């Protein structure tokens, strides 16, 4: 048995009947698996008939040839749950996804080949795509509508017209899917401009457009290029994402509802980007570079229909009211609320200084020049470079050529300043008669996920100069910080102004969602029971980190804060509400 989903004239046809797709994006990789069904049920109860998700290559092939489809990466389970709930599914498994996700979903190991050209008809790139699709596509094929599954459509590339115009490449990706058994509807999605549609559309593939407003103008533009076909907004931007140091983006619920109403009046189909944003756990946040580098925060709340922790917002009810004008809906029956609890203050009692822990966390490498993370086979996290400099030398100007993304500088294990990619201020210092050790701790704050600068190497990409003189012969410690179990903690007697790991434990009777309030802490990464729950930074707008209850357990729980700049705090608070506020970037040091 199979389900029929096709295009007939300007309509989508599902099992012989016209259907208007009302879809919402829920990224399985931004939501703990235990909550997938809850989010999908809420999507269904809002009146939606379809769920859409990207597929991030870097999550599923973290190292070349090493595939992962378990836990938060269990894509098949997510699809099966959508089918159980009664939703159709749109899958976007193009090699590149953007999504404010690290490197736009491309795996960092692609950058080990410096000659590789991304997102075009480069044989080296396509060879890697083929190997990935050889594993991914057989997992998706059984779930296509043609095989009695819920997947009705798949995307071949993502907003390609915003990047390039390689028609040979687009046709290659199309055939790569079809040759592996994909026989459902294929589509592209692009911005609604002449250049973007000319670059991103390709023969034999349905085109869709992405926008947040301007319904009639942009659908008219799509119909210029694609007459007598269904019109669909594949990304209706009903909210927006935040960079560190920005004000939290919001959009009025009635404005969103009115825009949706205009689309449904035109008999257009729509996919809300997002319906539920979720969280950039770990080091998976991306970054933009439209003039300067701008990393994305940990929260992907997006100000949409469900909050970061899955609570219906005003937009949920405003949108449902509009949908009910066009489709008969049953009385609202939401799942029981997921418990949220304030567990109170957690004291830190143990500490491990980073510079004392390098050997425990990493095996040092000797190199003539500083090398990037990618050259050393490292994906995310931090990297520490150290060399010796002879003296005496007066008034030395330090130049990092170029640093990606943020570097803390040390002389003989003493912090002397910070150099940021987006704020490359000069550092000057003297070197004594006996010389010194120069240490540089670089944080990868997320590879660029959109635009022409996505080929974004991390660490020190060229070299280090003092007064124009390159420094050679470095000891390098890769610090991906995936596993902190090798750290040797000591009893904490006082906080430090240097990078350090702080550990505390707390006891609870029953797990519940909670929010780590990091007021008084400056910048770093938080871990709960070994899980990296994301980055924090005092510049906001994010003021809490979301901890889903599956990260906790009854009894003893552990929090580790990797603080880069030191803090006078000896505790954090676990509260019951998220906080996203307006913050301004501090003045340069």
UniProtKB/TrEMBL annotation:
The keyword Hydrolase applies. The keyword Hydrolase applies. Residues 370-480 form the Beta-galactosidase 1-like first all-beta domain. Signal peptide: none annotated. Residues 499-557 form the Beta-galactosidase galactose-binding domain. Pfam families: BetaGal_ABD_1, BetaGal_gal-bd, Glyco_hydro_35. InterPro entries: B-gal_1-like, BetaGal1-like_ABD1, BetaGal_gal-bd, Galactose-bd-like_sf, GH, Gly_Hdrlase_35_cat, Glycoside_Hdrlase_35. Keywords: Glycosidase, Hydrolase. Residues 11-325 form the Glycoside hydrolase 35 catalytic domain. Belongs to the glycosyl hydrolase 35 family. This is Beta-galactosidase. It comes from Paenibacillus dokdonensis. The lineage of its organism: Bacteria, Bacillati, Bacillota, Bacilli, Bacillales.
